[in-house]
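Re-run with default settings, no changes from the original entry. Doing this only to confirm the output is reproducible before filing.
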Amino acid sequence: MSLEEYKRKRRFEETPEPPPQVEKKSKHRYVVQKHRATRLHYDFRLEMEGVLKSWAVPKGPSLDPADKRLAMAVEDHPVSYFDFEGTIPEGNYGAGTVMVWDVGTWEPLSPTPVNGKFVPGTDAEASAMLRKGDFKIRLHGQRIKGDFALIHIKARRPGGKGNEWLLIKKQDDEAVAGYDIEQYDSSVLSQRTMAQIGGDKDSAEWKSSRPASRRTSKAAWLEETLAKLDKKKKQVATEGREQHRGNKEAKAKPSGSASPTPSGSGKTKKASSASSVSSIVKSLKGAVQSSMPASIHPMLATSTEKPFDDPEWLFEIKWDGYRAVAFVDHGKVRLVSRNQNDLTGQFPELQELPAFLKARTAILDGEIVALDEAGRSSFSLMQQRAGLRGSDRRTAARADVPVLYYLFDLLYLDGFDLRRVPLEERKRALQAILVPSDVARFSDHFPGQGVVLFEAAKQKGLEGILAKRRSSHYQERRGQDWLKIKITQTLDCVVGGYVEPEGSRQYFGSLVLGLYDQKRQLVHVGQAGSGFDQKTLREIWERLDPLQSKRNPFYGEVDAGKAHWVKPELVAEIKFAEWTHETSESSPKLRAPVFLRLRDDKNPRDCTLEQPVGPLTATGH
């Protein structure tokens, strides 16, 4: 059995991980390693055919036959990997903490029962069952025992890699109804917890050329930004206190008067338990006791051109992923896109979200993102994960791209509708109920400090920032209480046609673009003829060709030369310099538009013609 895939994913010049050596003889050992990498999961490994056959099990194995655990087949590992326990430094594949959660031995079960019972089988039968995708085994572990079946299943979504299995406990004397894997939180080898292993200097560690950094709930670049903002906030607070003290002395106020707390610097009381969180919610002004809403249309932001500072606003990083509203109901999660499409099946790892919430029922708003190695959201990786890259969607999907849910709003909690509660209070409640994890994190906000956050986002190559009025209520529409400030001006436009190519160019010359006005009429806003290479020209043409139509989808005149019309079903993200000025003869047009990418996650009807909001208008000055 080859270990080429194991070797390919690792840089052995930087880390002395166990070498990719195939053993001549297998000892039928079994191990489960708890692994907190990009997301927490359990690695289920069987020593077989000279290697460790391996599956990543997000929720871990269960002794309850009612639990059908998803198990993603991963690359074979060398047998020397069996007892590793320690920390893989950041920057390496699989970076994070590893614990040996269970060890033991296993034996194959014959596919042919005797008197209705499974009996031990042979290695040849084991290999045949594995190839067939119906693998029956008996485990003799310290924590996991009895008969199991590993069943290979069809991909749950188009474009799956074919590595999805189910790990199912058989009904026998070792079965435990309602089994809770969290009852065991220490290593069977060292008796240490994950936290102790991760922080213990004596732990085995795979060294890299860079020192391992302490894993936190934030990326390194965001930690730097937080430190800068915190320093500035303290400076502003100090100046405010000094100014206030000077004013008091000038006005000869009584010495017993209390000093005010600077805006944005007040301390927030955090709930320590679900009951205390519930009491906080009940006391929030605007909270209304009601049943959980069945649907939520996300609140949308209006574009503004320049960042600004204002103590009445909160500023956040603009994550570049898929907007999603999560409905959490007694341990189950339903994810819905901004277009009301069900996303639940696309992101099975987010089913673990309830385990990190101090709530029975909740509705949360956030962005599902795929992070690059620097901890920045990558829309390109997100497209690869969702299978929406290029024209061939079915083969582009990559189940191995991990995702993270950044949460920035709380709309409902344990019987109370919070949409009429001020934003800052909603975010405070969200932070109180959320336990940061590799599944979901709180999207930090910075009171009053938009300019410095914008500059930090610009330096790190991010898409932009959001400004949200701290007193705003949650309105299920686009409004001026939430603003988006992009590093580069971009716009999502509807593709309504194309212009014939000239010279040596193939497929098409430019895309004819439009936006819907207030009357829901598609208005022409320009053409994008740059930003393409030969590959994207071909891929986009394969999407355009089936949509060809004789009907012009635009309202009014279209100055686009030899245009061919298509049904307005595609959305393109366009980078541009500025808007041209409207004249009596024509509406505003995009100046110097450049094609960036198609946006399959956006509804064409949401691409609207809106006037950008200036910062002074936005802040009410």
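Residues 201-220, 250-274, 389-396, 611-621 have pLDDT under 50 and may be disordered. The chain has three domains: 4-205, 274-485, 490-616.
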